[in-house]
Amino acid sequence: MSKNQQKDMGQSFEEQFKRSTSPMLTLLLLSEKPMYVYNLSQELSRRSNSAYKMSFLYPVLYKLQQQGYVTEYSQEVTESHRTRNYYAITDNGRRYLKLLQVKYRELLFAVDTILNYDEDKKSDIVNSC
């Protein structure tokens, strides 16, 4: 496999992973306090040591808002009446976040189990001897 193919495949995997986990991580951050998009983006980057950067937060927030998991409100941030849009999690969003976290951990455990299957099988054989 060429380096370009590996790079393309890796980016595709990373993009898919971020798309799948971004609603959960967005709700997690909003469960701590209301935030605006730039703040959310910076916090994701900070907590992941810059490994988790998302350029598509608005679609995630809009979808969560349509589903009733997030609300949006405007707040003045300067004396010149400049406003900033903040997003906050709803009670339904908190319940949904808990479900997402449970499902994420179940799937993560299942994938780890599959990835380590041969090693676990070998250690079982060695331990039974």
SSE layout and pairings?
Elements: H1 3-32, H2 37-47, H3 57-66, E1 70-76, E2 83-89, H4 91-115, H5 117-128
Antiparallel strand pairs: 1-2
CATH overall fold name: Arc Repressor Mutant, subunit A
- Report helical residue fraction: 55-70%
What structural category arises from helix and sheet content? mainly alpha
Order of helices and strands: HHHEEHH
Largest sheet: 2 strands, antiparallel
Number of helices: 5
Low-confidence segments, given as residue ranges, are none
Q: Which radius of gyration do the C-alpha atoms yield?
A: 20 Å
Global outline: elongated
Number of self-contained structural domains: 1
CATH homology-level superfamily: Winged helix-like DNA-binding domain superfamily/Winged helix DNA-binding domain
CATH class: Mainly Alpha
Distance between the termini: 40 Å
How big a fraction of the residues is strand?
5-15%
Mean pLDDT: 88
Report the count of strand segments: 2
CATH architecture: Orthogonal Bundle
Query: How do the strands of the widest beta sheet line up side by side?
Result: 1-2
Explain the overall architecture:
The chain is mainly alpha-helical. The chain has one domain (about 20-129): Arc Repressor Mutant, subunit A. Helices cover about 70% and strands about 10% of the residues. The protein has five helices and two strands, in the order H-H-H-E-E-H-H. It has helices spanning about 5-30, 35-45, 55-65, 90-115, 115-129; strands at about 70-75, 85-90. It has a two-stranded antiparallel sheet. Helix 1 (about 5-30) runs antiparallel to helix 4 (about 90-115). The chain starts with a helix and ends with a helix. The model has no long low-confidence stretch (mean pLDDT about 90).
